[in-house]
Amino acid sequence: MYGTSCSSRMIQRLLLKCVTRLCAACACRITAAFWLVAHSWALPLCSRSHQACAHCRKMRKRCLQRCLNVETKREKILEARHREIRLKERSRSEQSKEEETKDREGEERAEDLVAYAEKEFYEMVEAEMKKRGKEEKIVKEKNKENSEEEL
């Protein structure tokens, strides 16, 4: 490229070899940075290639550490989400079980209330019939007494 295309190509190849081992997100940044370095230096960069590779190794270690940290954070977040989902499902299933038992108890209570109301109603009806029967007897007796007095 600039009269020293051989040396810049060598450096680019070395850098690209080092960079290709990195993750995709970090590799894009590093290749862009090293491409600028390689193109801005029109001088032969063979003497700097070892420094660049050493720097690249440091960058690789840092990037790998960052990538591992990011991945562990992602895993922790995913595990937390899965735990939350499991807890929600458990609570929903427990709530549905509780609601079913409440519904059953409510139905039993309703049936008990209906039975109690029917029993009470029939007792009241019987009591009223007894009252009326007594009243009718009293009325009949009064009528008999009145009719006997009239005779």
From TrEMBL:
Ranges of Basic and acidic residues composition bias in the record: 88-107
Start and end residues of each stretch annotated as Disordered: 88-110, 130-151
Official protein name in the record: Uncharacterized protein
Provenance organism: Pangasianodon hypophthalmus
